[in-house]
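User: Predict the structure for this protein chain, please.
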Amino acid sequence: MIDLHTHSTCSDGTESPFTVVKKALSAGITILGITDHDTTAGWNEAQSAMAPQIQLALGAEISCLTDDGISVHMLGLLFDGENEQMQRMLADSRDTRVPRMRKMVTLLQEAGYEITMEDVLAASPDQATLGRPHLADALVSKKIVKDRAEAFAQLLHNDSKFYVTHLSPTPVDAIKTIRAAGGVAVIAHPFASRRGQTLRAESFQDLVDAGLNGIEVHHRDQSPDEQHILSEIAVEMNLAITGSSDYHGAGKVNQLGENTTHLDEWEKLESQANARRVISK
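Assistant: Here is the predicted structure, written as C-alpha cells:
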C-alpha cells in the first residue's frame, strides 16, 4: 500500500514521526509520505523508525493562496531537503503563522470566547508548525467545543468570521519552487468542497504549465463525483493520480491507508523527480 500524505507532531498531527512510521508498518503500508505542514522537521526522526518493509517519500504540505484568495495545499515530495529556496519558502510560511494565530485568538476573544494565545501554545507540541488544529485543541481544552471536528465546523472553517489567512506562496510559485528543488508537486484535495471555496477545473492549466506532477484524487473530503471529475482532469493533462489518508493521528478520523496510490501512478510520479530520493533501509 502507498500512502503519500500524513502528518505528525511536527505540524498538526498528534503522533510523533517515529510513531507514524511504526503505525504505517503495522498497517501494511510499503511507501509512506511524511508531509507535515510547511516543515521538514520530522524527516530525521521518521527515518529512525524505518524497517526493510517500508520506504519513505519525504516531503511537506505547503500552504498556498491563489491571487483571488482561495486556500490551496500543495504536496511537495522527493525534493532536496537542503535546497535553500525551498527551505526559505517553508520558513517564510511558518513565520507568518504566529501573527495570524494571534489575530484569530483576538477575534474569538472579541466575540466573547475565553481563549488566549498562551492556551494555544500550551496545546501545541514543541517546535510544531502552528495551525488551526492547535487552536481547535485549545478550544477543546477550555471546553468551548467537544473536539476538533466541532471546532472547525462551528468556528474555524475557511468561511468563518474568525478565519485569518497568512502570507503564503501562490500555488504556481510553490510548484516552481518544489520542481527547482528537484521534487514533484501534487495538489492536495483540490475539490474538497466541505473545506470551503475550491479551485475551478479551468485553474489546472496554469498549474500544469508551472510543472504540476499529480492530483490527489482519492481523499475522504472529496465526494465520488468530485473524484471522478479530478480523475478525468488528471488523465487529460497526463498527471499522476494519487490517493492518500491525510492522517493526523487522533486529530482526525482519517486512518492510515484508507486511500492509497496505485503502484503505476507512484512510479509515474517518482520518475519525474530529478534524483531518486525514496528512503529505504
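DSSP finds eleven helices and seven strands in the chain.
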